[in-house]
Amino acid sequence: MYFYTYDGSFEGLLTVVFEAFERKAWPTAIAQEQVAQPVIFGETIVVVTDEEKAQRVWKGLGKRLSEAALHQLYHTYLWEQQGFEQIIFDYIKLAFNSAQTIEGNYTAPCVLQVQQAAKQVHREKHRMEAFVRFQKTTDELYYAHIEPDFNVLPLIIRHFTKRYADQRWAIYDTRRCYGAFYDLQSTQFITLDVAPRKGLGVLPESAVMEEEHTYKQLWQVYFDHVNIPERKNPKLHLRHIPKRYWKYLSEKQPRRLA
């Protein structure tokens, strides 16, 4: 039994794949080193991330998988659910050991799991792009916080960089304690010494431009007026806008008292 640990990065996970193939020691479990528990039986192999080894694995996969399949594999990494590392490893091992493409081989559990995980992440990505709302701060920065089920921040950066190319903005994932900052030139990942708290009211009132409150109230009034009570369909509404996304929407926030 071989238990592999790595630093949690995608490159680190690909390095695990390289090491396992080189040793011919197939993992029975893979875990990030910061949460890994000591094992009584079997051997623990601590893997140090190696960019060159990771690139060799990725280039090798590029010869066996389509671009869509490579994206699905990366999305499965961002899925972050229990056991995702082993699913990715099993998928890669199957790809390297098969003479033909494995992309349609749904009899293999790992292939079906990768496709299902990638779909969930892709759906979350589009919902974040649709529901994220910025607040303009007193220092002219547009700020938004997110708490997605999956780690979709790397996937939504391109959308917001293109859409808001003329203004400084930051999106911070309060669940994973890191964010993205666009300075009108480029977008970089950031971490804050004191991370914003989760939930509503992430920014204090003093940090938000007063005009933001006005815009929010105008949007709430507009929403109230276009809403037709006789045509309410709560089930359909929840299907399109699940309740966990309401915290991002101005029309769903408590009305501010004058």
From TrEMBL:
<feature type="domain" description="DUF4130">
    <location>
        <begin position="84"/>
        <end position="251"/>
    </location>
</feature>
<dbReference type="InterPro" id="IPR025404">
    <property type="entry name" value="DUF4130"/>
</dbReference>
<dbReference type="InterPro" id="IPR023875">
    <property type="entry name" value="DNA_repair_put"/>
</dbReference>
<dbReference type="Pfam" id="PF13566">
    <property type="entry name" value="DUF4130"/>
</dbReference>
<protein>
    <submittedName>
        <fullName>DNA metabolism protein</fullName>
    </submittedName>
</protein>
